[in-house]
Design goal:
This protein has one domain. The chain has 3 helices and no strands. Helix 1 packs antiparallel against helix 2, helix 1 packs parallel to helix 3 and helix 2 packs antiparallel against helix 3.
């Protein structure tokens, strides 16, 4: 019987050893896999940052090649608008018949203010460097709006 007791003890001891060994293997593998996934996450994050930096550099290169041309074209349009404003002011100040009424004078003043704000935005973009495509689209839209307003202002709608 003592032999049976010893065998039972050994079986229990072996079961405990196998259990603890299995537990240690499971714990080690879970730690290993979790470390591996953290390392993978860090690596993926580094790749994402690298991709973002490359996209930023590409956008800056595009901006550096596109902005000077855009700025030159915009400055030309602004100069043309300044000439139109000067011509309209000259017509306003001619003695004799007054070709423009008070409403038109007010609209010329408003256009002049919008024109000044547009010029400020053009030169301010160099400092802020926001989204290029959005800036370009909005600037062109506003510039076109001012151009159309000049055309409408020059028409004589009175019959």
């Amino acid at each position: 019987m003592s032999n049976n007791k010893n065998q039972n003890k050994m079986k229990k001891q072996m079961k405990k050893t196998i259990f603890y060994t299995a537990l240690a293997v499971i714990a080690a593998s879970s730690i290993f896999t979790s470390c591996e996934s953290k390392e993978k996450k860090v690596e993926d994050a580094k790749e994402d940052v690298q991709d973002a930096k490359q996209e930023l550099k590409k956008a800056q290169r595009e901006l550096n090649t596109e902005y000077p041309t855009f700025k030159t074209d915009a400055e030309t349009k602004i100069a043309d608008n300044e000439k139109r404003i000067a011509e309209l002011r000259e017509k306003l100040n001619k003695p004799g018949k007054a070709p423009f009424d008070d409403l038109r004078k007010k609209r010329i003043d408003e256009l002049e203010e919008k024109h000044a704000a547009l010029r400020s935005r053009l030169y301010g973009y160099e400092k802020e460097r926001s989204d290029w495509e959005t800036f370009k689209r909005e600037f062109n839209h506003d510039m076109e709006g001012i151009g159309n307003a000049f055309k409408d202002l020059g028409k004589d709608n009175t019959k």
